[in-house]
Amino acid sequence: MQDRIEKIKFIHGLFKKELDELLRFANSAKASLTETQGPPMDIVISDKDVNLYIELPGLSADDFTVYQLDDLIVVEGMRPKENIEQVRFIRVEREAVWFRRVVRLPFCVNDSETTAKLKEGVLTVKISRCACEIE
Questions:
Q1: What confidence score (pLDDT) does residue 126 get?
Q2: What distance in Å separates the CA atoms of residue 101 and residue 35, rounded to the nearest whole number?
Q3: What burial class does residue 43 get, using C-beta atoms within 10 Å of its C-beta: 0-12 exposed, 13-18 middle, 19+ buried?
Q4: How crowded is residue 66: how many other Cβ atoms within 10 Å of its Cβ?
Q5: For residues 15 and 88, is the Cβ–Cβ distance under 8 A?
Q6: Predicted confidence band at 51 (pLDDT cuts at 50, 70, 90)?
Q7: Which of 12, 66, 84, 131, CA to CA, is 20 to 30 A from 111?
Q8: For the CA atoms of the chain, what is the radius of gyration?
Q9: Strands 49-55, 122-133: parallel, antiparallel or unpaired by DSSP?
Q10: What is the distance of C-alpha 134 from the center of its chain?
Q11: Neighbouring C-beta atoms of residue 118, cutoff 10 Å
Q12: In this predicted model, what pLDDT tens digit does every residue of 55-105 receive, in sequence order?
């Protein structure tokens, strides 16, 4: 039992470290939208919700993760490397690349009404707005 508790404490410590790093990064941004390297993205805001459209061509839902923490939306993952055997490449531009996009929204969101859908290489994340605004 003690061993299980130690493992849980260890995992919690790792998660806390990653979360602290993410929050420190997000808080260092002065703009309401935090720009990071990654796939192209459009953000459309209306009175009721916000929609993120992120280009992820060739990726499946297993290749990336979308999560939300308060007013932050994070999309991160790995573009897998194609394994083609018995060939000699002349040019390689589509490498296996790790990516992360972090978006800080200028308003509170309703966590329970967030959806994400991948269709034809475009990830659509729809998030319902709450009444409060963030400065």
A1: 92
A2: 7
A3: middle
A4: 19
A5: no
A6: very high
A7: 12
A8: 18
A9: antiparallel
A10: 20
A11: 17
A12: 998 899 999 999 888 778 889 998 877 777 788 888 877 777 788 888 888
H/E stretch holding 78 reads strand 72-79
- Residue 12 is given by DSSP the state H
CB 98 within 8 A of CB 90: no
Separation of alpha carbons 97 and 118, rounded Å: 19
Contact predicate 82/93, CB 8 Å = no
Residue 65 CB coordination number (10 Å): 12
Q: What six digits make up the tokens of 97?
A: 């690349």
pLDDT tens digits, 24-46: 766 655 444 444 567 899 999 88
> What is the rounded CA–CA span in Å between residue 131 and residue 108?
7
